[in-house]
Write a structure and sequence with these properties.
Strand content: 15-25%
Number of strands: 11
Largest sheet: 8 strands, parallel
CATH class: Alpha Beta
Distance between the termini: 20 Å
Shape: globular
CATH architecture: Alpha-Beta Barrel
Low-confidence stretches: none
Order of helices and strands: EHEHEHHEHEEEHEHEHEEHHH
Number of domains: 1
Length: 317
């Protein structure tokens, strides 16, 4: 499969819709359906809906989570702090996002690409997939992963870091990261992070990528499921930063009060994600942008409200 020059990032957690993925595919790009946070049945339904809307190229992204050592005491202290602040909380816990079930779904589905985030593609997926398998990386150390294509995520990217661990090692800007990864491998590279216009796309292609993956650029599209609170925050502007406050894993979002109030949230994903889920849901219902994650990349000020097909065309170098 020849990789289109423009790829829609998965955008799990709300913005991802069959309509958005199909619109990008119909415009000649590759539209990703985000599998994160969905049940297997929900994922299968979204793939079917996407396929009903397009004959173009469609991919599915899966979370690959490994249960590691978590500082339970630190999570408990964080929960106590949030309770003292008056928040309703969930139960912190690990789960693997129903990975095995979702692998079965994508192996049986009519898709053109399967990608992974947070970890290397499982052996079962690599052995049984009849389509290219991509892996998201955000450090040169992860470049040796077994995958057909590497999605190279610079520090500018919005949302969760795609690294295989949640360490605090220094992050590289996209162009510098592409150069280091290209020195390690001759596999195809898809560049991700801060790509919201043609100039950024051209810079990534010049640095060794064969295609660009954009997410923030599509958040205001009418086909996206971006929550109104999130849309309004993007329109207002501001700055972004990396935080663990909402999910326990480093992610880039528009800075708000909750991020400022909790700079030392523990590294514990998805434990903290489950812990804060009720308070984030309540904030969205109340229209409170200060208490909800507002994932966005560093160039989010360039995001504009336009159909997905128009965004695809604006990113073509």
């Amino acid at each position: 499969m020849e990789i289109p020059q423009v790829v829609l990032a998965p955008l799990a957690g709300g913005p991802s819709t069959p309509e958005l993925a199909a619109a990008v595919a119909n415009a000649g790009g590759l539209g990703f359906v985000a599998g994160g946070y969905l049940s297997g049945d929900e994922l299968a339904a979204r793939i079917r809906r996407t396929r009903a809307l397009t004959e173009g190229l469609v991919g599915v992204n899966l979370f690959v989570l490994r249960e590691g050592t978590v500082d339970g005491a630190a999570v408990a202290r964080y929960a106590d702090q949030l309770r003292r602040e008056g928040y309703e909380l969930g139960e912190p816990r690990f789960d693997d996002d129903a990975l095995d079930e979702k692998i079965d779904v994508v192996l049986a589905a009519d898709v053109d690409v399967i990608s992974t985030t947070f970890g290397p593609p499982p052996v079962r997926l690599l052995e049984r997939a009849h389509v290219p398998v991509w892996a998201t990386i955000s450090s040169p150390a992860d470049a040796d992963v077994d995958a057909d294509v590497l999605v190279v995520q610079g520090v500018e990217a919005g949302g969760h870091r795609g690294a295989f661990d949640d360490g605090d090692a220094s992050d590289l800007p996209l162009v510098a990261l592409l150069a280091e990864v290209r020195a390690r491998t001759d596999r195809p590279l898809v560049a991700a992070g801060g790509i919201t216009d043609r100039a950024a796309a051209e810079a990534a292609l010049a640095a060794g990528a064969g295609a660009v993956q954009a997410g923030t650029a599509f958040l205001l599209c009418p086909e996206a499921g971006t929550h109104p609170v999130h849309r309004e925050a993007i329109a207002r502007g501001g700055t972004t930063a990396l935080t663990r406050a909402f999910t326990g894993r480093r992610a880039r979002g528009i800075v708000n009060r909750f991020m400022r109030d909790h700079p030392d949230a523990p590294s514990a994903y998805p434990h903290v994600h489950h812990l804060t889920a009720p308070l984030r849901a309540a904030a969205r219902t109340a229209g409170d942008a200060e208490r909800v994650n507002l994932w966005a990349g560093t160039s989010f000020a360039q995001t504009r409200e336009a159909p997905a097909a128009e965004i695809v065309e604006s990113l073509r170098a």
